Amino acid sequence: MPKSSDSDNSAESTADIIGHLSEAISRVDTSRSIAQEENAVRPVRSRALRLLDHRARSEQELRDRLLEAEFPQASVDTVIADLVESGLIDDRRFAEEWVRQRRTRRGKSRRVLREELRRKGVSSADCDHALAEVSDDDERQLTRRVAEDRARRIRTAPADRKEKYAHLRRIAAALARRGFPAGMSQRIAHDVVEERITELSSDLDGE
Fold this sequence. Notes:
3 domains; about 80% helix; mainly alpha; Arc Repressor Mutant, subunit A
């Protein structure tokens, strides 16, 4: 009987050893896998951070740039997910800043801004949120500011009706290219051209 017990204990000890070895091998394999994954994503993360340091980008825009650099899809997905979780990529915040800067610096209309954001992969909901701050009155004021900037390029009062309407068409076309509504663009173009002609005529009278 004791001999049988020793045999059972020996079998259990062998099984325990095998189990511990399997666990150790599994831990080594897991560590190796984690290290390999980190090595794979490190250059992707480095490139992504350099791109974000240059300027803010939407999630889709950054993903496209990384894939264009021929990084593996899986590594790109991992890095993008990490950046979203950390808040370094935030499409809603990106859309808000894009609208603010493009209206201030480029005089872009709501329609054009929406098109630009959609091309960058920003969702309709995030576009709506960013553009909700732009009222109809804001849009009219911006249209007029852009038109006035164009009208200041008129240096002399038009010699005739044909020249006057040539100025009007050029300003209206510039507004249309920025995406402002045609009817509003025509009205504002007409107003600023008339105001500019009056200003130039007054200068001549003063001389």
